[in-house]
Design goal:
The protein has about 375 residues and is mostly helical. The protein has helices at about 1-30, 55-65, 70, 75-90, 115-135, 135-150, 170-185, 190-210, 240-255, 260-275, 300-315, 320-335, 365-380, and strands at about 40, 55, 100-105, 110-115, 170, 220, 235, 275, 280-285, 285-290, 295, 300, 350, 360. It contains 13 helices and 14 strands.
């Protein structure tokens, strides 16, 4: 398969960048070795911006470093995981054991509110830390987070609210990452809660998120899981089409439930046809439900999700065209990594193909590591 040969070469290039440059950069410069935790962003010279740190940052760094040793990094992966976990537990965990939204650069709370999105990443970070460190206290803490979500954020129609008290619109995105978290815990813990919650989210995606007329996946909803009023109800994001496809196909893999398979492959097909700029070769930020372009800026994370979706589809279907998509997506990712200081990245590509000159967000490391890991394992199994 010519596509597989080219994919294997690109995969090796991405993996070399990760192991030789990125892991070292984000441990030596991205970790705050004075106050603890990780910096929110690094300037393109590798210096930290010193800004406030979102709750999602540290679980994402835990995840990134939890795969470092297996991928071949020789650095202190467990130390990096503990460094992120300790700061996250010390400065974001509230008395009710859910996680606040924002702290300053030294850990002082700035926003004590809770968001479902951040709790989903707390569960992802706990899963990664448990898998790497084999600490039973981490598993018990994750079960407790899950229980608190059920107690505090249950939506009376299905699944979860975004916050307590309620904020609208409800979001497919936060549920997408909660599905990701529950799938991760299904691999690590035989407690039935994880599969039960994952099944509820998968069902909600099939029944409410995916528009039956177009096959596209809406982003925003009212309190009863109907499309949000106005323009919000018609927004679709190509990056999320690919990311949902990857997760739904992972659900199929783990459970044997094939019902979401066709819908997931349709999300990839629509993402390719409506959500990728043929001239630049990158996925747009957003489109409208009628297929028209909404935001032509191309974020790096969207390209990584395109790569992950292509990988799992190539493996599950055996079709060469998905290897071609993987090659195109990996080639796009490479363009964002061409920075003066190796190990950093660009975040936003403008319509003319140039990049916004801005700091590299640490939170994107999770997307990159996940994509490179998926690419590595898929190429290895196919070779």
């Amino acid at each position: 398969m010519p596509g597989l040969i080219e994919a294997a070469s690109l995969c090796e290039t991405l993996k070399t960048w990760l192991l030789d440059d990125a892991y070292d950069m984000w441990w030596t410069c991205g970790a705050d070795h004075v106050h603890g935790g990780f910096h929110e962003r690094l300037n393109q010279d590798g210096t930290p911006t010193g800004e406030a740190r979102r709750s999602r940052l540290h679980p994402r760094q835990i995840y990134a470093y939890s795969l470092a040793e297996e991928l071949g990094w020789a650095g202190p992966a467990d130390e990096a995981i503990r460094h992120a976990l300790d700061f996250h537990l010390a400065h974001y965990r509230r008395p009710d054991r859910l996680f606040r939204t924002l702290v300053d650069a030294v850990g002082k709370p700035l926003d004590d509110g809770i968001l479902l999105y951040d709790q989903a990443f707390a569960l992802i970070g706990h899963a990664a830390a448990f898998d790497a460190l084999d600490d039973e206290d981490i598993r018990e803490a994750a079960r407790d987070i899950h229980a608190q979500l059920r107690a505090q954020l249950a939506n009376p129609v299905s699944c979860f609210e975004e916050s307590n008290p309620r904020i609208l619109p409800l979001s497919a995105n936060s549920h997408m990452h909660l599905l990701e978290a529950n799938l991760a815990w299904m691999d690590l813990d035989h407690d039935a809660r994880w599969q039960t919650t994952a099944a509820q989210i998968a069902d909600l995606a099939m029944s409410r998120f995916i528009d039956p007329a177009t096959g596209l996946l809406r982003e925003f909803f009212d309190e009863n899981w109907r499309p949000a009023p106005g323009e919000q109800g018609g927004i679709a994001e190509p990056g999320h089409l690919f990311e949902w496809a990857w997760l739904l196909l992972r659900w199929v893999e783990r459970t044997g439930d094939r019902r979401p398979r066709d819908a997931a492959l349709k999300l990839i097909e629509l993402g390719e046809r409506l959500g990728v700029d043929a001239r630049r070769g990158v996925a747009f930020a957003s489109i409208n439900l009628d297929g028209s372009l909404r935001d032509p800026v191309a974020r790096l994370w969207s390209q990584t999700e395109r790569l992950k979706a292509a990988c799992i589809a190539a493996e599950q279907t055996g079709e060469d065209r998905y290897w071609e998509i993987a090659v195109a997506a990996a080639s796009a990712v490479m363009r964002y990594l061409d920075t003066p200081k190796p190990g950093l990245w660009r975040d936003r590509m403008l319509p003319d193909g140039t990049f916004v000159d801005e700091p590299a967000p640490a939170s994107t490391f999770y997307h990159l590591v996940c994509a490179i890991d998926e690419f590595t394992h898929t190429v290895r199994r196919a070779s």
